[in-house]
Design a protein that fits this description.
The chain is an all-alpha fold. Helices cover 64% and strands 0% of the residues. It has a domain of 41 residues. It contains three helices and no strands. The radius of gyration is 23 Å and the shape is rod-shaped.
Length: 67
């Protein structure tokens, strides 16, 4: 039966690079989520009060949805 060594240490700087890339990725995800919420708020704010009532919302709910 053959065994394979899998507990090698990471190369110098690999963890730092991984964390930097992960940070950039997290930032990009937050920007995308912010933009989606902004677009949703803008689309809902363009609706009339009657249209908002049809989907079960009032004018005050529009700002809360983006949060």
């Amino acid at each position: 039966m053959a065994a394979y060594e899998t507990s090698r240490p990471a190369p110098f700087g690999a963890i730092s690079i991984f964390r930097a890339i992960q940070g950039v990725s997290n930032l990009a995800a937050k920007i995308v989520a912010w933009n989606d919420a902004r677009a949703t708020r803008n689309a809902l704010s363009r609706l009339s009060d009657h249209e908002l009532e049809d989907i079960g919302l009032c004018r005050g709910d529009v700002e809360m949805i983006g949060r």
